[in-house]
UniProtKB/TrEMBL annotation:
Lineage: Eukaryota, Fungi, Dikarya, Basidiomycota, Agaricomycotina
One Gene Ontology molecular-function label: metallopeptidase activity
InterPro entries given in the database record: MetalloPept_cat_dom_sf (IPR024079)
Name listed for the protein in its UniProt record: Lysine-specific metallo-endopeptidase domain-containing protein
Taxonomic superkingdom: Eukaryota
Length: 185
């Protein structure tokens, strides 16, 4: 049995390789009518499409290629799948206790998580939108009533209601890259 540390390293390394391949494929798939449908699903039809594409290009730029151990670390005190230092995103991404699982599905989760966190680090994306204005907010002190951009939180509402600022929603890139469906009703 590999040690926990090796196990983390291997799973992170495998997920990074997959994440880079998924992003490269996405860059080619995103143009055309199929790409437009997928962007509408993940961001809403009013999104600034050029900004979405620009972010994807940043993620696939060999200069920014997602690497390990470049800033990536596992911290068992992080009670989340992963976290990006929002005050200084360039400092990298920390992966927490829930990052590791043992099924194929878990690998998809890891790939999606890496893509989500990488958009925080490289594209300045956020997870929260103001409850009144639907504008993206960098830091939320009082989360009550504000919209959380995760697929399993308020993404459905945001896709329906938010304007061109949706290119700043981190989880929309995960949804786009992993071909996840946002419920329409
Ligand atoms: Zn996030």
């Amino acid at each position: 049995m590999p040690s926990t540390k090796e196990d983390y390293h291997n799973k992170l390394q495998n997920a990074l390789v997959s994440a880079n391949l998924v992003l490269k494929a996405l860059e080619h798939e995103i143009d055309g009518s199929e790409g437009e449908k997928r962007i509408n699903n993940a961001f809403g039809s009013r999104v600034d499409r050029a900004a979405v594409k620009k972010c994807i290009q940043k993620l696939t730029n060999p200069r920014n290629k997602l690497e390990f151990p470049h800033g990536a670390a596992v911290d068992h005190s992080v009670n989340a799948i992963a976290a990006t230092n929002m005050a200084d995103p360039g400092k990298g991404i920390t992966f927490g206790t829930f990052f590791i699982g043992n099924t194929e599905e878990d690998n998809d989760m890891r790939v999606g998580t890496i893509i989500h966190e990488a958009t925080h680090a490289l594209c300045g994306t956020v997870d929260w939108f103001d409850k009144h204005t639907f504008e993206p907010v960098d830091e939320v002190k009082d989360k009550t009533g504000n919209y959380h951009g995760y697929l399993d939180s308020n993404l459905k509402d945001l896709v329906r209601s938010t304007g061109i600022q949706m290119h700043r929603n981190a989880d929309s890139y995960r949804v786009l890259a992993m071909k996840l469906e946002v419920p329409t009703v």
